Amino acid sequence: xxxxxxxxxxxxxxxxxxxxxxxxxxxxxxxxxxxxxxxxxxxxxxxxxxxxxxxxxxxxxxxxxxxxxxxxxxxxxxxxxxxxxxxxxxxxxxxxxxxxxxxxxxxxxxxxxxxxxxxxxxxxxxxxxxxxxxxxxxxxxxxxxxxxxxxxxxxxxxxxxxxxxxxxxxxxxxxxxxxxxxxxxxxxxxxxxxxxxxxxxxxxxxxxxxxxxxxxxxxxxxxxxxxxxxxxxxxxxxxxxxxxxxxxxxxxxxxxxxxxxxxxxxxxxxxxxxxxxxxxxxxxxxxxxxxxxxxxxxxxxxxxxxxxxxxxxxxxxxxxxxxxxxxxxxxxxxxxxxxxxxxxxxxxxxxxxxxxxxxxx
Length: 361
Ligand SMILES: Nc1nc2c(ncn2[C@@H]2O[C@H](COP(=O)(O)OP(=O)(O)OP(=O)(O)O)[C@@H](O)[C@H]2O)c(=O)[nH]1
Ligand SMILES: [Mg+2]
Fold this sequence. Notes:
By secondary structure, the protein is an alpha/beta fold. The chain folds into two domains: 22-56 and 186-355, P-loop containing nucleotide triphosphate hydrolases (Rossmann fold, 3-Layer(aba) Sandwich), CATH 3.40.50.300; 59-173, GI Alpha 1, domain 2-like (Orthogonal Bundle), CATH 1.10.400. It has helices at residues 22-25, 42-53, 59-86, 88-91, 96-110, 118-126, 129-136, 139-146, 158-162, 164-168, 176-181, 247-260, 276-282, 304-316, 336-357; strands at 29-35, 189-196, 199-206, 225-231, 268-274, 326-330. Strand 2 and strand 3 (199-206) form a beta hairpin. Helix 3 (59-86) crosses helix 5, helix 3 packs across helix 8 and helix 5 (96-110) crosses helix 7 (129-136). The two termini are 31 Å apart. Guanosine-5'-triphosphate (GTP) is lined by residues 36, 38-44, 154, 156, 180-181, 183, 185-186, 207-209, 274-275, 277-278, 332-334.
């Protein structure tokens, strides 16, 4: 499967006549589309499908993953170091010894940072193992990490800095929990087919950031089910591509336009409210009602279930078709047993609906 061609606005397809529905025309292949905003967890679910039903990573792929993880560490250090550099009160927390190490990071990683040359950045960064380990334990970096929602740091990548020794070692072999935590932004459309319980499923993963949504359009035909992924934990964060827009609001808007799209009138919608592990941690200290876009929240403050139910209601309210059901799952895409369990019930829904559509049930 190559990269889809572009279209001005992939999700504004109200004017377009839906062509055909895959369930009627392509009984052999069941096409599943992963949709959602950037960083919601689509590719992580795509990776889980391979862990559950596909081939293990080859040696060459594992080597590439090692480099990706080193680049992810570097990006995290860059995000936190910028914060420590720019926030005077946080910068003041550095002790004299830590400041020496920090200056080295600024000289060698921040000043020379070239976002087109990931490998060089990572090499500079990995060479500063002693300095980075000292800083990662410092009060300044702990404070920067606790305020990461206002940086580009990826939640969960603290695991990489906690395992820095292992990751810089020349014998580092990527374990599966690092594979699932690694992050590469998807920029086109990729697909993979799996035979599961005698049926052929083809899953499509797309780039979720705004710019890449223009590649979505050509994948809209023949879709049996959409897995729409939205990150629960991002209710207090702004979009990477537009710092004025709340990430959860963007996910809600996108979900609404997917439901509205004529192509998907008869498509099963599986909504994965993802990153429940990060949401569980965050909700203890972050208040939903304090977010401008969610000031109508009247549930219990700092309560996991009330928070989750509030967001479920927001998403499901967009479904105005009484004949269409939105199947909601609360997920942790980095947890293989959770995704295996959730996928088991999704598969049953999809297979049943596929049989009904082909008149065999
Ligand atoms: N802790 C935790 N991290 C998650 C979860 N789901 C995804 N992540 C992490 O979030 C980051 C982004 O996930 P991706 O799967 O790359 O997101 P995406 O939706 O494919 O993003 P785009 O390709 O930009 O559209 C990765 O570092 C993942 O490991 C989750 O449930 N819990
Ligand atoms: Mg992706």
